[in-house]
TrEMBL record:
InterPro entries: Acyl_CoA_acyltransferase (IPR016181), GNAT_dom (IPR000182)
PANTHER family: ACETYLTRANSFERASE-RELATED (PTHR43328), N-ACETYLTRANSFERASE DOMAIN-CONTAINING PROTEIN (PTHR43328:SF1)
Protein name in UniProt: GNAT family N-acetyltransferase
Coiled-coil spans in chain: none
PROSITE patterns with a match to the protein in the record: GNAT
Length: 168
């Protein structure tokens, strides 16, 4: 099986909608995505990613034998943080526990460090999302600290963790 990251295609909308239409995933993402997540929502997302600024948004489908199983993106920050980028990601529940997320994180970081002037990539998973934290750690990210009471998700005040990978 070949796991890779690639640019989005409009025809990915069915797989994207299938994977995101899951509260176990949505409850570990930031707010802003509709639920249920329809194919039209997926097409809108893909069009937005394809038309975004190519120097600040690096958005990819995570594929297994060219079938979309998740999403990963790295987003350049601005002002004094213009050489820093935030990473966000998810993988469909049927694909959990196989190391796919760690593999995708490594691939996107390699791409960003080789093709941009970005020197630091960070991620802020919810502290209770141990699988996400572990994927980051296995990909070489270091936990820089716990952000206490940093978010409100599903009506609960929760901690987040700050992870970062710095260009060698």
């Amino acid at each position: 099986m070949n796991l890779s990251i690639r640019k989005w295609r409009i025809e990915d909308k069915s797989d994207l909608a299938f994977n995101l239409n899951n509260l176990k995933i949505m409850n570990n993402l930031r707010d802003g995505l509709p639920y249920p997540f329809t194919e039209q929502d997926a097409e809108d997302f893909i069009r937005t990613m394809l038309s975004s600024d190519k120097d600040s948004t690096f958005a990819f489908a995570i594929t297994l034998d060219d079938k979309v199983i998740g999403s990963i993106g790295v987003f350049r920050q601005d002002n004094i943080h213009s050489r820093t980028a935030e990473m966000g990601y998810y993988i469909g529940e049927p694909y959990w526990g196989n190391g796919y997320m760690t593999n995708a994180i490594k691939q996107v970081c390699q791409y960003v460090f080789e093709n941009t002037d970005i020197i630091r990539i960070f991620a802020e998973p919810f502290a209770h999302n141990t699988a996400s934290c572990r994927a980051l750690e296995k990909a070489g990210f270091k936990c820089e600290g716990i952000l206490k009471s940093n978010a409100v998700k599903c009506g609960s005040i929760i901690d987040m963790k700050m992870y970062a990978l710095v260009r060698a």
